[in-house]
Each structure stands twice: as C-alpha cells, then as structure tokens.
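Researcher: Here's the sequence for the chain we discussed earlier.
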Amino acid sequence: MKILVPIKRVIDYNVKVRVKADQSGVELANVKMAMNPFDEIAVEQAIRFKEAGAADEVVAISIGPDQAQETIRTALAMGADRGIHVQASHDTEPLAIAKVIKAITDKENPGLILMGKQAIDDDSNQTGQMLATLLGWPQATFASGVELDGNSLKIIREVDSGLEHITCPMPAVVTVDLRLNEPRYASLPNIMKAKKKPIDQISLEDLGVDASQRLKTIKVEEPPARQAGIIVDSVDTLVEKLTNEAKVI
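Model: Thanks. This is the structure I predict for it:
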C-alpha cells in the first residue's frame, strides 16, 4: 500500500507572528519556517505503518515556492521515501490544494491519504474534507487513534462529547489530531540520506488545476492588548464592578 501525506510549510509554532506594517498579511521575511505540526504527526503515522509492514511507500507532497522543498526534505529525513513538489508562486486556498492532491492521487493511486486536520497559519480545517468529496472516498477527521484492520481502518475521533470509535473502509482520507502520536526527530544520518531521496517537481499547469485565488484579504490586525487586572478591597466592590463595568451579572 502507498500512503500520500500532504504537508505545508508554515511559520514555526515557536515564533511570534508579526503583522506587516501595511496590514496586508503577516511578516514572512527572515522568519523561521517549519512543517505544520499536524502534518508532522501525519508523516509519523505513515512511517509507523510502513515500519509495521502495512505500507510499502510513503510519499510527501507540498505545494508552494521552491522553499517548500526544505519541508519535504524534513519528511524524507523522518522516513518518507520520496517527495512531490507542486510549484506555486502565490498562496493556495484549500479548494485549490484539494484539487491538486486529487490530481496527484489519480496518478499515484494510493491506498490511504494521511494529513493534518488543519494548518496553524490559517486554521481552515477544510482541505481534507474537500479532498475526500472530490475523490468520492470515505473520510475520518480529527483522528487521535488509527489502526489498520485488513481493508479498513479503526479510528478514534475526538469530538465535543468525548471519543468516537468508527470503522472506515479504504481507500480513505484521514485527518489527524495532536494526540495521535509524538513525531520523531530526524537523526543526522537520515538527514544526510534525505538529500539523495528523489523529489519530483510538477507545475500547476502540468496537473491542469486552476489555483487562481478566489479569496481576498482585506486587512490583518493583531488582537487588542489585554487590559491589566485590578485588585479590589471588598466583595461589594467586586460585585459592583462585575455589574456595572463588566456587565456579567
């Protein structure tokens, strides 16, 4: 079985995001970038399936500028077998990404697609669901547990009321949550080996996908600064402020 893992290059989660002076977006120049944490979990799960003998090949896919190849190399250093880089000079939206992955899926014919439930830069949580719809495949979202059972998957999903256990036939699209696993660190020997692993470059035109932007960002603002708290000298003063100022009573 072949497993496809779409991955995204985002601002490292340890970096404080800064808004551009013209409020057109966030500052990306000279900012540390990394693989989206949810996608890293998906890569780890795919590699675990391969190590268990349930998969033959793990293919990492990334869409974006040339720097996206660095993110693919990270997945290769973790244990993925090869990468596919779809060149895109502008930001791609969830629907366009889903169409790109569908086009690659039609060529690669995988048995499973594992991907992060969302990216930490836009938090859309849309691509996996759109992809499953375009493919006509079953989907399982917010997976905190994934187990292969013959030609199906046993999935544990995190929902508002607790945990939901479902069975999903394959091929399928699974979006993973944070508690699924702990991604490994790439060792130095594997980092060196990753430099020799193949990365295929494909253009949007080659795939016949229209990735023109349909959404326009009007303005990006930082959240307002939180006001400092105060210390009150009595319960009566607290009640008065909660009633008249905070208006929560």
